[in-house]
């Protein structure tokens, strides 16, 4: 059995500063902005840091009535989501399938003839979401209507440069400040028969894969025209349009086309994106599988999206994110003969990407992303849409709201919830501070996929994610030097034990819930004896127990007496167990040491004493 855990070393935080507001729309308080030279997002009105925690509900506008929208938003807001990614022009035949109230999105299959009754429902949802503190991110159109996408010759196109710009202006004028995610599961270079070409090759796998593929069309100018419409209309309302691009996976690799990152389709004279994006997708490539020889298409390994984040940060100066990682409840490659992605896979998709520098995360579950409800529970047969992508016909998006991956998505935000603007701006991936234990025969930095180990720091904070719970060592001396930890604590937190203990108890509780299937959590910050006592008290109650978390603050020759310990303000009166030897006998393992971790102020002499630290952990079996 494997374990994953997160370690956080935390110091202190400051108050965030607010910036003046701008023009008002009903969703003004939830709009966001990006800077081309900053790695993270911020709230447009206040300037406060914003970490994107999105759910995927492509069919939100098309399938849900107002009652269901309220049920859905209430749940997602309670779980900590702050963004919903939804498609304006549905992927499931926008010209013939209406929304719940019987309204098509466009009339006469013409995107320059939007049905205003349909968009009044969109207005209501966007405004309602803002009341819950949630920002709707538009996917203006599914890519199939620009380049046939994954429907190929069974589909049709609705956009050229002129109609794309018109529609962009329509959305920009009506919804300024709403993020626009172009691409819609496609790329800027595509052929009109990709799925049919793959099917034909499967019938004749000895044939040349490229012989089945139609001509590749460059549709970048169409997307650029749509973006120009957003930008010019939103500028009239006082907004800098927030635009990104959702590519697909797999992509056309033979003949070669650019890697599917948003910045490879919108750049130079075509404009620039607010945020770069990738879809790491839903596949775990199988080199022995039949499709591995279909060289026309190449997929990402969705277990390695940290590689995508690292590469985008090298090539794009602004914020970057994986906007579609494997859906909870979906089969690998949407192939029902393969394994199903679960909540553990969801976590593995979040934390390595985050700690590699992503500005946010996007969750998806297979029933919710298509708003699927089984036929026995729908209002009438006209509202039924067969399940897609291998989903069981007995599934229900209502039931899937409480799948564990959805609940655990919100915990990611808790790690960053109280960061100041200065801390947020200084979030930095720092894998170089992690190394293998001296007793380990493995190079832990060589571990890949769901065993990958990632780390990130900012001023006063340090996080490590170990996918399988592998032991590691942290260069605490280098970390302390970057924090200037000793002077910070000595000068700014005279009641260190009390204040830091509160931070540790708070975060330990949330992180323990994050991996309550026996993962180990360690969070500390040069804590004194009062923190140790609080942790031991906390360990008596679920989800904690005595094996879940351990922290030893000092070596044996620096133990406080019970008398001196009792004089510290707000300290519980109990026996002290702070000896490293004691914890070692209980099965704990030291994972990091520092000779001068923080400065403790003696309550009797008021003298400052440098305190050595040892961090210990025991895995729950």
From TrEMBL:
Apiosidase-like catalytic domain location: 36-418
Signal sequence interval, chain numbering: 1-18
InterPro entries (UniProt xref): Apiosidase-like_cat_dom, GH
Protein name listed in UniProt: Apiosidase-like catalytic domain-containing protein
Highest rank taxon of the organism: Eukaryota
SUPFAM superfamilies the UniProt entry points to: (Trans)glycosidases (SSF51445)
Entry keywords, A to Z: Signal
Organism: Colletotrichum gloeosporioides (strain Cg-14) (Anthracnose fungus)
């Amino acid at each position: 059995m494997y374990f994953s855990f997160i370690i956080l070393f935390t110091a202190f935080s400051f108050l965030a500063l607010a910036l003046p507001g701008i023009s008002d729309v009903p969703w003004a308080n939830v709009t966001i902005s990006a800077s081309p030279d900053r790695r993270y997002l911020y709230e447009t009105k206040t300037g406060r840091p914003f970490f994107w925690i999105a759910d995927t509900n492509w069919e939100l506008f098309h399938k849900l009535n107002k009652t269901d929208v309220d049920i859905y938003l209430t749940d997602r807001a309670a779980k900590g989501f702050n963004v919903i990614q939804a498609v304006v022009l549905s992927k499931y035949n926008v010209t013939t399938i209406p929304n719940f109230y019987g309204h098509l999105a466009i009339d006469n299959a013409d995107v320059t003839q939007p049905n205003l009754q349909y968009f009044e429902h969109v207005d209501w949802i966007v405004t309602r979401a803002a009341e819950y503190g949630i920002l709707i991110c538009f996917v203006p159109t599914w890519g199939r209507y620009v380049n046939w996408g994954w429907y190929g010759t069974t589909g049709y196109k609705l956009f050229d440069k002129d109609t794309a710009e018109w529609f962009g202006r329509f959305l920009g004028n009506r919804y300024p400040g709403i993020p626009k995610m172009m691409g819609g599961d496609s790329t800027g270079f595509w052929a009109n028969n990709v799925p049919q070409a793959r099917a034909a090759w499967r019938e004749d796998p000895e044939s040349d894969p490229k012989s089945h593929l139609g001509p590749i069309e460059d549709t970048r100018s169409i997307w650029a025209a749509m973006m120009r419409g957003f930008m010019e209309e939103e500028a009239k309302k006082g907004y800098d349009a927030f635009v990104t691009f959702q590519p697909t996976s797999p992509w056309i690799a033979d003949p070669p086309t650019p890697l599917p990152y948003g910045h490879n389709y919108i750049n130079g004279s075509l404009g620039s994106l607010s945020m770069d994006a990738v879809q790491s997708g839903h596949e775990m490539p199988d080199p022995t599988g039949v499709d591995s020889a279909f060289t026309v298409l190449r997929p990402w390994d969705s277990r390695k999206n940290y590689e995508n984040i690292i590469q985008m940060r090298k090539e794009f100066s602004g914020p970057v994110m994986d906007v579609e990682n494997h859906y909870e409840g979906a089969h690998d490659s949407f192939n029902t003969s393969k394994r199903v992605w679960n909540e553990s896979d969801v976590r593995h998709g979040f934390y390595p990407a985050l700690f590699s520098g992503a500005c946010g995360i996007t969750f998806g579950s297979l029933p919710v992303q298509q708003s699927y409800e089984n036929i026995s529970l729908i209002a009438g047969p006209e509202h039924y849409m067969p399940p897609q992508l291998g989903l069981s016909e007995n599934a229900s998006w209502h039931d899937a709201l409480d799948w564990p991956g959805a609940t655990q998505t919100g915990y990611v935000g808790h790690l960053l919830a109280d960061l100041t603007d200065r801390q947020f701006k200084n979030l930095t991936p720092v894998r170089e501070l992690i190394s293998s234990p001296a007793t380990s025969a493995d190079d832990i930095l060589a571990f890949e996929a769901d065993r990958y180990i990632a780390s990130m720091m900012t001023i006063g904070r340090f996080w490590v994610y170990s996918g399988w719970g592998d032991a590691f060592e942290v260069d605490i001396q280098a970390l302390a030097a970057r924090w200037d930890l000793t002077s910070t604590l000595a000068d700014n937190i005279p009641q260190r034990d009390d204040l830091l203990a509160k931070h540790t108890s708070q975060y330990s509780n949330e992180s323990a819930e994050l991996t309550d299937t026996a993962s180990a959590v360690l969070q500390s910050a040069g804590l004194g004896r009062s923190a140790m006592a609080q942790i031991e008290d906390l360990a008596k109650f679920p989800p904690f127990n005595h094996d879940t978390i351990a922290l030893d603050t000092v070596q044996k020759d620096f133990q406080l007496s019970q008398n001196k310990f009792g004089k510290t303000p707000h300290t519980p009166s109990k026996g002290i167990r702070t000896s490293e030897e004691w914890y070692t006998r209980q099965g704990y393992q030291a994972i990091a040491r520092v000779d001068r971790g923080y400065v403790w102020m003696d309550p009797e002499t008021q003298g400052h004493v440098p305190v050595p630290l040892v961090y210990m952990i025991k895995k729950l079996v």
